[in-house]
């Protein structure tokens, strides 16, 4: 009888612990497009730190480590039943969206997120700063710039370009945009665009940036015309961009984690995509000097990294 009574007490205590909040902690599945990529690894590391601080558990799935990623990811989701799937990079999100559309999905580090298949229960942190932030910083660094040109594909970037034009106009900057249907049109488009502008702006358009050859073509044409190039990421600095204002990787990881906690508690509306909260400014002093381009010396206080010429 004593054993029976003891068992009853254990059952009652188990029910109490669950109802009082002592259930197993929530689990998040992290799907990484390629954990060997520095930016993806940095974001994942910061994301996990915040989860740990909030007593969340997680499981990681790296696409580059699985031969049959789709089948294995689907099986893992069934086994783990995570409250949310965090996708780092476009490949990770596309696959998770395909095999787990009924789950809450959160993404970051996805180039041009507007082209993604965004469904119910999807949230994210954008890969780029808001156009208003970028244009304000451009105006601060280069107060004499009046005409900025960019190439884009209407299918993927029309809404984003319209936002850029509106925000630029408010600061007295004219955006001259040239649409292209495919990468083969880049050469002719640049020949028409570059004589009209003071600076070229690289946006994260998947057609314009479809290959390394397309990027090289842009920089070669700009250099021949002696036009400075501004970019949304510091990966373009070594190509010759004079300035890059990119989202801070560590901040994206922490911000994504904070958003994940809010999503788990149903504290944000579906479809929420936040702009990055932090930025990193890289100035290519070598390219500036080569172009003899004037910039606001007071803006140097806002620069995180200055690239000098190799001696």
What's this, in brief?
It comes from Methylobacter tundripaludum (strain ATCC BAA-1195 / DSM 17260 / SV96). The chain has 311 residues and is α/β, with parallel strands linked by helices.
Task: Supply database-style keywords.
2 domains; 311 residues; six-stranded parallel β-sheet; seven-stranded mixed β-sheet; ABC transporter substrate binding protein; elongated; alpha/beta; Rossmann fold; ABC_transpt-TYRBP-like
SSE blueprint and pairings:
Layout: H1 2-19, E1 27-32, H2 38-53, E2 57-62, H3 69-80, E3 84-88, H4 90-99, E4 105-108, E5 122-125, H5 131-141, E6 147-152, H6 154-170, E7 174-179, H7 186-193, E8 199-202, H8 212-224, E9 229-231, E10 243-247, H9 249-264, E11 273-274, E12 279-284, H10 285-291, E13 305-307
Parallel strand pairs: 1-2, 1-3, 3-4, 4-5, 5-11, 6-7, 6-8, 8-9, 9-10, 12-13
Antiparallel strand pairs: 10-12
Helix pairs in contact: 2-9, 5-6, 7-8
Described by the principal axes of the CA atoms, the overall outline is elongated
Topology-level CATH name of the largest domain: Rossmann fold
- How many angstroms separate the termini? 87 Å
Please give the largest β-sheet: 7 strands, mixed
Give a count of the beta strands, DSSP E runs of length 2 or more: 13
CATH-level-4 superfamily name of the largest domain: Response regulator
Q: Tell me the helix content.
A: 40-55%
């Amino acid at each position: 009888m004593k054993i029976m009574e003891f068992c009853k007490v254990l059952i009652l205590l188990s029910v109490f612990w669950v109802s009082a909040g002592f259930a197993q902690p929530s689990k998040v599945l992290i799907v990484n497009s390629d954990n060997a990529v520095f930016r993806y690894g940095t974001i994942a590391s910061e994301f996990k730190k915040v989860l740990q601080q909030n007593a969340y558990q997680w499981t990681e799935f790296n696409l580059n480590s699985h031969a049959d990623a789709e089948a294995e990811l689907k099986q893992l989701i069934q086994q783990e039943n995570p409250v949310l799937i965090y996708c780092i990079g476009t490949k990770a999100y596309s696959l998770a969206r395909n095999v787990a559309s009924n789950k809450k999905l959160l993404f970051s580090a996805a180039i041009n997120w507007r082209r993604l298949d965004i469904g119910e229960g999807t949230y994210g942190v954008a890969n780029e700063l808001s156009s208003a932030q970028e244009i304000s910083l451009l105006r601060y660094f280069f107060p004499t710039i009046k005409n900025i040109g960019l190439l884009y594909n209407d299918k993927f970037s029309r809404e984003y370009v319209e936002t850029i034009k509106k925000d630029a106009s408010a600061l007295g900057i004219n955006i001259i945009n040239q649409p292209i249907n495919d990468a083969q049109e880049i050469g002719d488009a640049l020949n028409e665009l570059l004589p009209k502008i003071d600076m070229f702006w690289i946006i994260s358009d998947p057609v314009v940036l479809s290959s390394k050859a397309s990027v090289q073509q842009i920089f070669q044409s700009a250099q021949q015309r002696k036009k400075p190039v501004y970019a949304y990421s510091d990966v373009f600095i070594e190509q010759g961009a004079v300035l890059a204002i990119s989202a801070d990787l560590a901040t994206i990881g922490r911000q994504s984690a904070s958003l994940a906690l809010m999503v788990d508690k149903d504290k944000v509306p579906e479809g929420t995509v936040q702009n990055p909260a932090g930025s990193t400014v890289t100035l290519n002093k070598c390219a500036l000097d080569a172009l003899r381009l004037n910039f606001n010396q007071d803006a140097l206080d806002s620069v995180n990294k200055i690239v000098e010429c190799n001696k």
